Q: What sequence folds into this?
């Protein structure tokens, strides 16, 4: 009888956490499959980027970047090797990462508008990614976009900016930060 009580106590203590862990896994939300204001290709996104710069349109430029929700639900947890479990962060940590990235990116947006904006129409001469491409669990990154464009006055301009994410055939900038 005593052995039965010990076994029952062990089962009572061990089983609920296992059930809660399994329930938590099932309750994890799926990543969204549609991105707001995404482009169907990297080339289309780059064209929209250049048009926003040519028109000095800060609002359009901002909308070419992932939203806070997209960053926090796809980019941040999905920046792990394919097949690896998605990362889980505390709420304050995701807020900090988003706030830091968003603030820096906004500064780079302003710099882009001030330095290369308003000189269009721009014509793309070359496209490259200084840090290449990398597949992650939830997206593919095209790291550190480098463009050489010819502006409206015929001058060759070198534009260096942040990275692009491809998520289910949709393309958006992760940020405009050049690091």
A:
């Amino acid at each position: 009888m005593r052995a039965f009580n010990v076994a029952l106590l062990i089962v009572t203590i061990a089983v609920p956490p296992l059930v809660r862990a399994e329930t938590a896994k099932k309750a994890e939300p799926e990543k969204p499959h549609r991105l707001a204001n995404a482009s169907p290709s990297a080339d289309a996104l780059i064209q929209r980027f250049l048009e926003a710069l040519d028109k000095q349109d800060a609002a359009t430029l901002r909308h070419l970047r992932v939203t806070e929700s997209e960053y926090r639900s796809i980019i941040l947890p999905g920046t792990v090797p394919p097949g690896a479990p998605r990362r889980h962060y505390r709420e304050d940590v995701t807020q900090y990462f988003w706030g830091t990235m968003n603030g820096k990116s906004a500064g780079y947006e302003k710099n882009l508008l001030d330095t290369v904006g308003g000189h269009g129409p721009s014509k793309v001469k070359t496209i490259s990614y200084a840090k290449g491409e990398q597949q992650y669990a939830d997206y593919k990154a095209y790291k550190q976009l480098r463009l050489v464009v010819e502006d409206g006055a015929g001058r060759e301009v070198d534009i260096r900016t942040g990275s692009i994410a491809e998520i289910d055939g949709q393309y958006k900038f992760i940020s405009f930060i050049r690091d």
